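hey so i finally got around to running the thing on that chain from the lab meeting. sorry it took forever, my laptop kept dying and i had to restart like 3 times. anyway pasting the input first so we r on the same page abt which one it is
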Amino acid sequence: MTTSHQVTALHLAAAGLPVLPLRQGKGPFGNCPTCADNACGGRPNMKSPGPCLCPRPCHAWAAATTDPDVITSPAWANAWKHAEAVGYHPGGTGVTVVDLDDANAVDWARATLPPTRTVTTTRGEHWFYQGTMRSANAVRPGVDIKSLMAYARWLGPGTGTMAVLPEVVRALIVKEPAAVRSAPRAVTVPAPAGGGECRHRSPSYLERGIAMAEQRITDAASAVHATVYRTFLAVLSAHGRCGCLTETHIARLFTAAQVKGESPRHCADAWTNARTALGM
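ok and heres what got predicted. didnt touch it at all, straight out
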């Protein structure tokens, strides 16, 4: 049975917006049994992808899609049946949302930001700008930035003409580094030879997977060693057997790990151990 949210999602997808179902409380669904009820280890309310080993991302912003076959698939049927809203990935359509959570934040935006397209929310407003940037919460009181690696609730197309993303918004997430680390050292490790069937649904799938892995390592607040190993394991599980994973991709992962304090040796050991665990 097609639901109203599913119909809305199909219309948005046809217009180029990557969409996903949202449950009560605006959290995404886990769209496979492994990830249901946060079983895969995703963050609270499934707001970010967890270290699952699914064939492709199945929840949070990474699951957002414009593919009508996915939107109408049996895997998503139960999610749409119980969905409270439609979510979308702003960065996936080249947009940044300035999420203003209260009247004070709205007053600040009207006094500080250039006019653009807006839509009313339950507590404030969403301001839309053309262009993408890193997402961040609480960049100032009552203000969140939703763009790359984030999702927002669809509340309508809004009113007004969309302006180009201004520097004043980009500057909201620029912070002075707490400490200066030495530059990451290059480590040469062989990319898996592959040879299996490529499961990538689109050219962007691999790029999205690597970006997710970099972000997961970057966001690790503790147990960095374990996070790096699990992330390498997930990347190799998804991309290591079809030959699409290159040394450039591996270097990006190693760089993210070294920025978090991992040594080149630890990176190489974690990569080797992950390959061994998967029989590569």
